[in-house]
User: Fold this.
Amino acid sequence: MKIFRSLIIIALIILEFGCSGTRKNILQETLASDNPKIKNVMSKPDDFELQIIYTQISRDKNNKVSFKDFTYHLNAGNYFYPASTVKFPIAILALEKLNTIDNTSKDTQYIIEGQADKLRFSDEISKVFAVSDNVASTNLLEFAGFDYVNESMAAKGLTPFKLSHRLSTSNPSDTKTKAVILYAENSAMVNLPAFANKSNQALQLKNLKKGIGYMKNDTLINEPFDFSNKNYYPLETLHNTMKRIVFPETFKESERFKISEKDREFILFSMQNLPKNAGYDSEKYEDGYCKFFMFGDTKENIPSNIKIHNKVGNAYGTLIDCAYIIDSENKIEFIVSATLLVNKDEIFNDDNYEYDTVGLPFLGELGRQLYAKNLKK
Assistant:
């Protein structure tokens, strides 16, 4: 019976990827693995709302890059909560907007209305990627603004996408951003007034109401949790954001982020920088703290030859990672993005999720097997 079930699972995976010939691909082979960390999810992928994109990167003799994408259950209309992955475009577009103001750079300082301390853009961006800092992301958003982020993403073809609320604040749904004072490099102060961004419109998608209940003020509400007024960042849009920041030359000028090469290099550096190298306690923030693929389920140090440029998210039982993984020593590079929901009791906001027992082991093993198959290839 177990063999029969395994054959059914493999057959379903093959059907999922299509039947164009008998040629296999690395993602398909990985998802058919007998490894229990993979099988635990692949035995019932619909229960976990699993979606994956794997991009094979090729270079010709002139080093020109080309992509070949392989997907599993990819569906922008099947909603998942994007959690901290929305910090990725916020960080980039804060620099893009900053580039429109004379005598500023990533090291420009600024003050947000109601706060006493000066902030530095480069510091806030570093925090966003090193430990996924919520406050740093909100500080960048107060400068960039909801409308600027949403309209800039749309202009670059990075749709569907909608940023509608802050993370972990007392006023998450207030779309009005605060006044900001910039301290330009010529010692002049630039005053940016508070801005009333467009009002939030509820999403119209499948799977917006999830589970059988949720916690609110320590009380169980026995009805599905409604995500219709939350942020929306489907996996394909997230994956294409990564492609644009890593390989801008493969896109039309209008589809690229309007930042300097120096700023792009800073974003890439910040994305791969480990917490211990960004000034955080390595006992509290191990290498895999924000590196779910390959290292999310282990406390091992990441070898120096492997660089993982990525942005993770985890909230309400949803885990997401989008990563460009490169090993210059072994000439390996690929992009992989995945999301899955680990909420067995179907109660949201109760902090009872299977992150450590199911979700991170799956993402860690998925990354390791993709890396190993690239190494073998």
